[in-house]
Design a protein that fits this description.
The protein is an alpha+beta fold. It is built from 20 helices and 26 strands.
């Protein structure tokens, strides 16, 4: 008898098959003496479309809402049906004794496998492989400690409840809004409060009234002393008051009232979880959350040098302590070798600063694996993400940085002044970041003259400073995903996709690195029920789903609440009195249906789309490319069609595609004809994709 292993992706399946000694390959599985390894290609099975519950749901009508299936139906996804049939056939083979689920170790990975098993009619025993990296060692250890499938029944119930609840709320509310206002409007428990959050920030910026403030700075004892009031505030909002302070202090000595010297230890920041990594990668390199996740997936699956990316923990478990030295050894190359050698010479002990079993749920923090790394095999972007994770890992294991903090307080004519200095005595973990701009404010290389308390000292330059209060910053993708995390919106696995969905629905647009809400987004928020805009709703859902996964809450009770909530939601939409108006309409007519087209700004370009949700026509006006401007080196947009295609840049530079190719050829970096054609075909394909797809297709991608 043989055991069937079900992985989520072919790449992971190949790694597992190699470790298990399976060598006989086919188009849908790899077979060995004791095991057969197959894969799911992501989801092979999903919840059925509304149309599959009855003919009345083929047309989008308010009268058929809300749709409340009494018995949920599953359907095999058409585009991957061939693989499903192959997996089903393997499950039903008489020489298969049991099934080992080896999909991603998390809530959604559990759902992928369980729906396939259910749709295939599996009756055989189930076991679970639960690992956080796909190195040979991790796979071997995982198979040596397989879990019983029944141990993950509650996790499956939570995953199934999430999918069914999102179906009920998302599909019903989307159909209701679309029917009510005859426009392509979608909403959901995560995307709508996220959109509301951006609108709130926009309102804060719009209503912000800047205020001028003033301050004073004086030079004494080789240091800069800053004026402060009794509460430690350094801002004076009245110029007259500021000038009064200036008259008092000019030409007067400084009397020292307090001298404080204190040694301080500082430890490295916590290890990365996915959200923190996405936020910092956005700030440092301009990567979108989705881009960071994709790079992490490659480093996890293909290179096998980092652990599972979709984690919300920044800690490790105590049983990992013995593996730390091996992980340090694996990444002791290039810029990390010096620190790694130092760490290898001493005992690496677990510390409560990074070891905490209670703060690890499904997966621990993102750290290097025991797999030896080859930096030259990575792309430049993969190197950047790998570098961030490895430096943080080595920093956490390194000695603390030790500095002397110096605080001087003084007075000039009864006005208070403060000076601070920091002397770094032991670099510790900061040695890893010496090539970056991490210098603390007031950092000095040698101690300044330390004065005596009560003595008077000469004051040199005296200057009044000016400033103005600033409005809150607009969200970037990095700060937005961080705020979603703080408010409990979505999960580490879904937030990046949700942000992309808001862009693709033309509810958001980007200018440089900042996010703006569109007119469509503002109008949608006016039309959706108030309760759906609250972050508390999805946070409450996630709390209950976590309780279901832990066996502390009944999933049927949760679904009963969701059904009741959905009914109220549809009633609110049906009885509302709002209006939706396209304010981005053009005078160009759709070549398919003749209605006027809308001009929309997508995340990566500008498009003309049909206002009719059924038609779905779309044409690209401009597309952001990776081609760099020869003048300012920013990415250029491509506009026009056929022989008239040209690149344009925000700096004013314009260049025909033919001229661009000729220039690249002269520079010795010419694009081959094959590469150019491939790029243009890809652009043409994207331009022809309808934005208002059939509802079934939309549902397969929706992540509410």
């Amino acid at each position: 008898m043989k055991r069937l292993v079900l992985a989520e992706k072919p790449s992971v399946a190949r790694d597992i098959a190699r470790v298990l000694g399976c060598q006989k390959k086919s188009h849908s599985y790899i077979e060995g003496k004791d095991y057969i390894v197959t894969w799911a290609l992501g989801h092979l099975v999903s919840l059925a479309d509304p149309e599959q519950y009855g003919k009345e749901y083929k047309e989008w009508n308010m009268e058929t809402l809300p749709m409340m299936p009494k018995h949920w139906k599953l359907t095999v996804l058409r585009q991957t049906s061939k693989q499903f049939q192959a997996v089903k056939k393997l499950m039903l083979r008489e020489d298969i004794s049991d099934i080992i689920i080896a999909t991603d170790a998390g809530r959604e990975g559990e759902l992928v496998a369980r729906w396939i098993l259910q749709m295939a009619g599996n009756k055989k025993p189930i076991y679970r492989l639960w690992i956080s990296s796909v190195t040979d060692k991790a796979i071997k250890d995982g198979f040596a400690h397989l879990k019983q499938g029944k141990d993950y029944e509650n996790l499956y119930r939570a995953a199934r409840s999430r999918a069914e609840a999102d179906w009920l709320v998302g599909i019903n509310a989307t159909r209701a809004l679309t029917c009510k206002y005859n426009a392509q409007l979608s909403c959901g428990r995560v995307q709508t409060p996220t959109l509301a959050m951006i609108a709130e920030r926009e309102a804060e910026i719009k209503n912000f009234q800047p205020k001028k403030f003033y301050g004073w700075k004086v030079s004494a004892l080789g240091m800069k002393f800053i004026w402060e009031n009794e509460k430690g505030n350094q801002r004076i909002f009245s110029k007259d008051n500021a000038e009064t302070v200036g008259k008092k202090i000019k030409g007067q000595p400084l009397t020292i009232t307090e001298v404080r010297r204190k040694e301080k230890k500082s430890y490295a920041p916590e290890l990365y979880d996915l959200t923190t990594l996405q936020k910092e990668a956005s700030k440092r390199y301009g990567f979108s959350p989705k881009q960071t996740l994709n790079l992490m997936q490659s480093l996890y699956e293909r290179h096998k040098v980092l652990t599972y990316p979709r984690t919300d923990s920044r800690y490790l478990t105590s049983d990992m302590t013995d593996t730390l030295k091996e992980r340090v050894k694996a990444c002791s190359v290039g810029p990390y070798k010096k620190t790694a050698v130092v760490l290898m010479k001493r005992e690496i002990k677990g510390s409560k600063r990074f070891i905490n079993n209670q703060k690890v749920s499904d997966h621990h923090a993102i750290i290097p694996t025991e797999q030896f790394v080859s930096l030259t095999s990575m792309s430049s972007d993969e190197r950047k993400i790998y570098d961030m994770v490895v430096r943080r890992f080595l920093a956490v294991l390194s000695q603390p940085a030790v500095s002397e903090q110096i605080l001087l307080r003084g007075s000039i004519s009864d006005e208070n002044f403060t000076a601070r200095a920091v002397l770094l005595k032991q670099t510790g973990w900061k040695e890893l970041y010496m090539d970056e701009e991490t210098t603390e404010e007031n950092m000095v290389t040698k101690l300044p003259q330390i004065p005596e308390k009560g003595k008077q000292y000469f004051v040199g330059a005296v200057s009044m400073t000016e400033g103005e209060t600033k409005a809150p910053h607009r969200y970037t993708e990095g700060t937005l995903i961080d705020q979603m995390d703080k408010k409990g919106l979505g999960t580490v696995a879904t937030r990046a996709d949700m942000i992309d969905k808001l862009f693709h629905s033309y509810l958001l647009e980007k200018k440089e690195n900042e996010i703006f809400i569109t007119s469509k987004g503002k109008q949608l928020l006016e039309l959706v029920p108030e309760d759906l805009k609250k972050a508390e709703l999805t946070a409450d859902w996630e709390q209950k789903l976590t309780a279901i996964a832990k066996g502390k809450q009944n999933d049927q009770k949760f679904m009963k609440e969701i059904r009741h909530y959905t009914e109220g939601l549809i009633h609110d939409i049906e009885t509302s009195e709002g209006r939706f108006r396209h304010d981005n309409i053009t005078r160009q007519k759709c070549p398919k249906c003749g209605k006027f087209l809308l001009k929309v700004n997508g995340k990566h370009g500008t498009f003309l789309v049909c206002q009719d949700r059924v038609c779905g026509y779309k044409r690209t006006l401009s597309k952001l490319t990776n081609a760099r401007c020869p003048v300012c080196h920013k990415k250029m947009e491509m506009v026009g069609e056929g022989d008239n295609q040209k690149f344009i840049c925000a700096c004013g530079h314009k260049e025909k595609l033919s001229a661009f190719k000729e220039r690249k050829k002269k520079e010795g970096k010419g694009m081959s004809r094959k590469e150019v054609n491939r790029y243009l075909k890809k652009q043409q394909k994207e331009a022809q994709e309808p934005i208002n797809r059939a509802f079934a297709d939309a549902l397969s991608k929706i992540k509410l």
